Structures are given as structure tokens and as C-alpha cells.
Amino acid sequence: MIVVCLTGCMSSPAESATMVVELTQTIQPSPTTTTISPTATSTPAPTYTATPKYVGFTLHSPLQDMQLSELSEIKTTDFIPPAPGQDNGHHGVDFAYYSRGTHQKMEGLEIYSIMPGKVAGISTELPPYGNLIIIETPLDSIPPGLVNQLPSIPVATPYPHNPRMEACGDYASDLINFTPGSLYTLYAHMQYPATLQIGDSVKAGDLIGYVGNSGKEYSGNPHLHLEMRLGSSGTEFASMGYYTTSAMDAERLQYCVWRVSGLFILLNPLDVIDAWMQFEQPGG
Description:
The protein is globular and about 50 Å long. It is about 5% helix and about 25% strand. The chain has a single domain, classed as Glucose Permease (Domain IIA). It has 2 helices and 15 strands. Strands 6, 7, 9, 10, 11, 12, 14 and 15 form an 8-stranded antiparallel sheet that branches. It is mainly beta.
């Protein structure tokens, strides 16, 4: 189990929708005072020094003109964990609307990186994700306690053999002494292929794509599909897909590692967002 503690707060401007880690303040000890006399000076007022905690770490809404707290209002498909041995369920959360505020449609809406990190994966028009991008955020860059605030994280365990997924193989030996080191966030069904490259650094709030309907066999309308997983640091997904004859063997293997190897532990993205927003005590 990864044990970290939560520190952070939510800013209010609607356009940025940025969750920023607060600075804690420490009071420097006052100098010893002397007996007050006509010639003695008063004790100087204490000075305050801002001590940054995880400077640069923020949590940002993934969608244009929307705050993190509003995402649940446009959730169309919930997180549904897969059954043992099956690549079913719904591994993330879908967000969509027909019109909202000044936006008359969702297609083309800007998609932003929720957390800082680096690009770890890109795929183009392969089912089930269509155009996707994956951002890796090392756990040691996340304020302590965020992961610990989530529901119990299951032990990394490979699924039983599934005849439909012969390309996946057996990952049991890979799970020996397995320890997740990063949080990976996947954004799928983007309108266009990602223009970033694997290894590129991103900040929370950076533009990474646009809402689309790519991978139409698995996407009925323009929406953002969001997934999060805990996995080994430094893993790259050059391209991944499975349920199509156009997928290469290497792309199927990448899909297996992400979806069924047990090396990437599935989380509900809204749990991560809710855990961040539940922070209430400055300096936590």
C-alpha cells in the first residue's frame, strides 16, 4: 500500500478550475525581550516565512470551462470494474453533454492534463480507445496522503486465463515484489491524434487534445473517456489496441499490459478527484 498524505486546496476561478497546493506558514521564534525601561526597545513583531509544499503540483479540470466539482454533473457512464478473467466492465468514467452554458456541443472542447507529468502513451484510431494520450505522474511528486485517501487499493493480481485474449500471456512472475511508482491518466476518443510526443513534459492545465468520437465502434457520441491506474514508473505505451485485425502483435501486448496484466491497478478517476477536493485543513 502506498501511504501519502493529502495537502492542497481548490481555487475558485471557473476558467482555470485549478486545485493548488497551499503554502504553509511558519512563525519564526521571537527574540528574548528585556525589561521595559525608558531606554529599552519593544520586541520586534514576528516575521512569517512561506514554506512551499510540493511547489508546482496542481489538480486541474480535464475539460474546458468546467471545474473539477462540476464533472459529476456530466458523467454519462460510471466506473465499472471488470469481472475476474474478463476484459469487460467500464475501466474509466465518461463525460459528455449536448449543450452547456455557452457551448452548444461538446465536440472540439479542449482537454487539459489533470496533473503534471510526462507523456507515457499515444495511440491513433485503435479500438477501444480511438485517439488517446496517457500522462504519467510519479507518486513522489504528489502531495502526501492523496492516494491514502482513496478506497482500498487492490493487490496487483493477473486475471485468470481468458481464451479471447491469447496474446496476453501470463504475468504472474512480473508481479513478484511489484510496487507501483506512478499514477497514469488516460484520455481517450480525442478528436485528433495527439500532437505531443512520448517523453514530453506537461503541466496541470496544459492543452493535450480535443473532445471527439474516435474509435466509433466503442464511442457512440463525442465524449471524454478518463482512466487512472497505478503502475511501475517509466512504462511507455507506444501504441495499443486489441479487438481489431489491424492491431499489430506489439499493440496487442501493450493493451494486455495496460488492461489485464495486473501491473496497472485500476482506480476510479472520480475517487482521486474527490479525495483531492476533500482536503479541508490547511497545512494538513
